[in-house]
Specification:
By secondary structure, the protein is an alpha/beta fold. A 5-stranded parallel beta sheet has the order 7-6-5-8-9, with no helix packed on it. Strands 2-1-3-4 form a 4-stranded parallel beta sheet. The protein has 2 domains: about 10-130 and about 290-305, 3-Layer(aba) Sandwich (Rossmann fold); about 135-290, Aspartate/ornithine carbamoyltransferase (Rossmann fold). It has 11 helices and 9 strands. It has helices spanning about 15-30, 55-65, 85-95, 110-115, 135-145, 165-175, 195-200, 215, 235-245, 250-255, 285-305, and strands at about 45-50, 70-75, 100-105, 120-125, 155-160, 180-185, 210, 225, 260-265. The structure holds phosphoric acid mono(formamide)ester (CP).
């Protein structure tokens, strides 16, 4: 049962709980009409201390499509945060008005701090360069729907693996499935942090390799997960400029890949996938963004413990 729980880390939910969530998302995809009033009378608060398009809009669209309502801010300076209010005081206040809160914050661990001071369920919508568990749910639903499961997959993760929180979360979620291996493609400076390499991959004896050359590993991948270089997390612009266009997936590189390789990207994209790839049937990143709304509908319903209602 997920009712009343938080989602702060990708591993907060068991494999069985995730399966229930995917099944519910699938029911919503098959029959959205049935869920039109599932959250009637409920209020979702979206507290975005950092910019977002997909995460905020998909959460808000999800709640509206479930018949609930949404309050919140996308610009913290439009709230009392601008007057110096702490995140704990903000969340205590929001809990007086809403049933569920979604928080994106530049500081790692901020949603966890917020969750500790309220009984209202709190969802981490991205905390600094740390984790992004609902993007992971989105990625998993996409793989589950398009590939049928998570076992026996070779997953290439490419780009900014140091600051890319979606990569950290995806590895943490996927390593639990049978016969999964990772190919980590990045420049030396943007390799995955040690807490992922040592505490997840090495500790659990998960096969992985770290490479710099994308072309040489493309033919063996079942999934290629591209990421942008996270400009906002760099300490100096010079390093960003030097690294930003290191990997660009284009039509020529796609010819090296399998005919059924899935190309995923959490988006936003900058230059790392050429627009010519968008028409390739293997390019699933906009479909992935759509799945993000359905999995968030399933998540909202599950944390609130709501059911489909007669309309
Ligand atoms: N994937 C993702 O988190 O996108 P936004 O930053 O637009 O929410």
């Amino acid at each position: 049962m997920l009712k009343g729980r938080n989602l702060l880390e990708p591993m907060d939910f068991t494999i069985e709980e995730l399966k229930e969530l995917f099944n519910l998302a699938d029911q919503i995809i098959q029959n959205p009409e049935l869920f039109r009033k599932a959250c009637d009378g409920k209020i979702l608060a979206t507290l975005f201390y950092e910019p977002s398009t997909r995460t905020r809009f998909s959460f808000e669209a999800a709640m509206l499509r479930l018949g609930g309502q949404v309050i919140g801010f996308s610009e913290p300076n439009s709230s009392s945060v601008a007057k110096g209010e702490s995140i704990t005081d903000t969340i205590r206040t929001v809990a007086c008005y809403a049933d569920l809160a979604v928080i994106r914050h530049p500081k790692e661990g901020a949603p966890k701090v917020a969750a500790a001071c309220t009984d209202m369920p709190v969802i981490n919508a991205g905390d600094g360069g740390h984790q992004h568990p609902t993007q992971t749910l989105t990625d998993l639903l996409t793989i589950w729907k398009e590939r049928g499961g998570f076992e026996n997959l070779t997953i290439g993760l490419c780009g900014d693996l140091k600051f890319g929180r979606t990569v950290h979360s995806l590895i943490k979620a996927l390593y639990r499935y049978k016969n999964v291996s990772f190919v980590l493609i990045s420049p030396e400076e943007l390799r995955i942090p040690d807490y992922v390499r040592k505490e997840i991959l090495i500790k659990n004896k998960i096969p992985f390799e770290e490479v710099e050359n994308m072309q040489e590993v493309l033919p063996k991948l079942d999934i290629l997960y591209m990421t942008r270089v996270q400009r906002e997390r760099f300490f100096n612009e010079e390093d960003y400029v030097r690294l930003k266009d290191r990997y660009i997936l284009d039509g020529a590189k796609m010819k090296l890949a399998r005919e059924d390789m899935m190309v995923l990207h959490p988006l936003p994209r900058v230059n790392e996938i050429s627009v010519e790839v968008d028409d390739d049937p293997r390019a699933l990143y906009f479909k992935q963004a759509r799945y993000g709304m359905y999995i968030r509908m399933a998540l909202i319903m599950s944390l609130l413990g709501t059911e489909p209602k007669e309309v």
